[in-house]
Amino acid sequence: MNIMHRAASDISKGRGLSLIELLVSMVLGLTLATGVVQIYVGSSTTERDREARQRIQENGRFATNFLSQEIRMAGYLGCLSSIEGASVNNVLNGPPATFQPQFGVQGWEATGTNPGVINNGANDVAVVGTNTAEWTNGEGGHVIPTFNAVPNSDIIRIWNAAGSAGLVTSITEGASASIQAESAAGIAANDFLILSDCEQADFVQACAVVADAAPATTSTITLSSACNPGNDSPAIISSVTSVADPAEVVRLEGTIFYVGKRNDTATNSSSLFRRQLSATGTAGVAEELIEGVESMQILYGVNVDIDVRNTVDSYLPANLVTEFSKVISVRISLLMQSVEDGSVPAPQIYTFDGVLYDGQSGNGALPVDTRVRRVFTNTISLRNRALGT
Prior knowledge:
single chain, alpha+beta, 4-stranded antiparallel beta sheet, 20 strands
């Protein structure tokens, strides 16, 4: 009898989980797993958001600092900075129409993007040529080089002397025109130059540069018609030099800043690009500087009344600036966006160029993507104009 009781007891102890116990265990396990997944997803979303905002912060600051340094030097022509551009003697032989260093700073407004105008950006938008009506300028005579850029974003070009100036020891005019200048100026063949005695100046091109025999520390710069576009022949140079009062020579730099896309491919993210003066006087090859720049809007601070204090009377878009010689500051606004979509859980509201984009009546449409956006604005004083001429 005892043996049978012990056997029944052993069978009872060896019995498995009941169906109800199994279901309860499964529900508890699924609940725990769901919680873990939710924590992971939330943490991953937060991390993507944080990383996107950090990247925008870094890119935005770098972009505004870089543009500030470049634009601040607009119109700097060495010791000639106080002389109006019309006083410069252009010795170049038929330079392209876009070679216009006499303006110092040039701007082109994207059509329909004046402050306060609703202008939703769009991803995967195709670039268009600058030779269309997309960009306009309020002053006659400005010619924009032809290249592709993202529409609805402004374009700016600055001209200035670059690098260190070199003293000129001799100037030879005529069919075999040349100058002898300090090698330390770093001038190379095909460079465009500003030759000046600080009372008058000449735009010339270095067709050849040969270091003079030691112990001389100078180079002979040939100003012939052999390069493109080259110089007039014979070359008539207005600047003069002497031992007591030497002229100087410095490289001329022209730089265009705009929003474009890598390889002009619509599906690529938009970026800030630049094109520098080429060896032929046109816009050079595209250089991608900073990715994630969705739009660039520019206002020009104009000293309308040319008062003694030389202060800004009005900030205007390029299509309303009728005299760029009166521009003494530039205000840049960059709309930065995260490169990857899905950085945030839902479309984000933002304000740019005086418009709130939240989808409400009278406002701009809410973005259809889930990218992070932030606006960076900086006002840049033109050193060579803000102090007067």
